[in-house]
Amino acid sequence: MTSQEEKYDAGDDHGKKTQQYSTEFKVKAVEWSHQAHRSVKSVAEALDIHPFMLSRWRKEYREGKFAMKRVKKAPADAKKKIQEQDEVARLKRRISELQEENDILKKFQRFQAEERPEAFRFIWKHRRDYSVKALCRHLKVSRSGYYAWANREPRKRATDKADLLLKIRKIYDNSKGRYGSPRVYQTLRREGLVVGENRVAKIMREWGMKARSARVHRRLRKLRNDLKALPNYRLEAARPTAENQQWSSDVTYIKLGKKCVFLAVVLDLYSRRIISWRLGASLSANFTRATLREAFTSRKPDSGLLFHTDRGIEYRAHKTQALLKQYQVKHSMNRPGQCTDNAEVESFFKTLKGELLHATSFVTMRQLRKHIKAYIEGFYNTQRLHSGLGYRTPLEFEGIN
């Protein structure tokens, strides 16, 4: 074999001659490619030759076609080029590792794993965003421990989901189907169970657990021009900071067979607690005044109470105004056409109808009164979690604050 060989372009069928290499160069290139930390591709790139040519030289080297002494020294520029390539590759790998660790620290610096299972769940959740190796190093857990946990976790997750479903079903049934996912989630939290709200909502959707909703009907009443309407003083009043500072009242109708009956309530705007209620067959000033008198008797508010209602004639009646004056109450009314000015009571009626009245058929007034009493006094005031109260009950809110 001659000491010179021509280099050809692998993609050219006509064999265009481009460069010649000495046998010494070929031998040294092959020996470098045999070193453990180098690959054929990296050596070929460093020497600016085609990997196919280097592979052919390696084959010829194994077949003993390079009959010569091993050279001890390579061209200095080629060796330096390979060293530079190695250093660049090493630095790129290190930069990539540091960037990944920095991203993990930035995104998850608030996460504190007190127990290893929490760290493992964290790694499982983010394993597609970052390498398991980097996550384990950041959270100071072993990869072997994580993979052992991951292999047995699917069975455990299935068991946990079944247990969670049973708890959700129990809460939903206890509320008689009145709770949607937000209140079920808050109830689970109160019981000390750590679970995501989205997960609760997903399970409830899968199993058809949906909160009851109400059909909204507006009651229309004729207004008498001789009864004075009052401004909405709530607009300029501060939010109540204790019970018996601001009350609100309204009346709704309920279908009972072929007729309608009426429900009047008085609500404390501070705690959303229903402090008095009355069910009657007819709507009159005497009916609403009796509900209001019951509230005064049970709560005994100080003078200066703000009492808000709509502009109905039963609240504008002279006898009702006289009762409010007797207790030194400041009466406030909705603006014309603004039913949302009394949103808290409207919300209660919607909830009552959605969670109780539309789910059950009532035949007699006595039966209806019994169920409304159980709902208000046994559930709404004492058990139902209110989002506006930080998911606490009205009685809890009054007691805590």
Q: Could you say how many structural domains there are in total? A: 4
Overall mean pLDDT score?
Answer: 81
Q: Give the number of DSSP strands.
A: 7
User: What CATH architecture label of the largest domain applies?
Assistant: 2-Layer Sandwich
Structural class: alpha/beta
Shape: elongated
The helix fraction, in percent, is 40-55%
CATH fold category name of the largest domain: Nucleotidyltransferase, domain 5
CATH class of the largest domain: Alpha Beta
Q: Kindly report the spatial arrangement of strands forming the biggest sheet.
A: 5-4-3-6-7
CATH evolutionary superfamily of the largest domain? Ribonuclease H-like superfamily/Ribonuclease H
Instruction: Pick out the low-confidence regions.
Output: 1-16, 216-224
Helix and strand topology:
Blueprint lengths: L3 E5 L8 E6 H11 L6 H8 L3 H12 L13 H33 L7 H10 L6 H8 L3 H32 L6 H10 L6 H10 L39 E11 L2 E10 L4 E8 L4 H15 L6 E4 L3 H4 L1 H9 L3 E4 L9 H13 L9 H16 L13 H7 L1
Parallel strand pairs: 3-6, 6-7
Antiparallel strand pairs: 1-2, 3-4, 4-5
Helix pairs in contact: 1-3, 2-4, 5-6, 7-8, 8-9
Plain-language structure description:
With 401 residues, the chain is an alpha/beta fold. The chain has helices spanning 23-33, 40-47, 51-62, 76-108, 116-125, 132-139, 143-174, 181-190, 197-206, 285-299, 313-316, 318-326, 343-355, 365-380, 394-400, and strands at residues 4-8, 17-22, 246-256, 259-268, 273-280, 306-309, 330-333. The strands form two sheets. It has a five-stranded mixed sheet with strand order 5-4-3-6-7, sandwiched between helices. Strand 3 (246-256) and strand 4 form a beta hairpin. The termini are far apart.
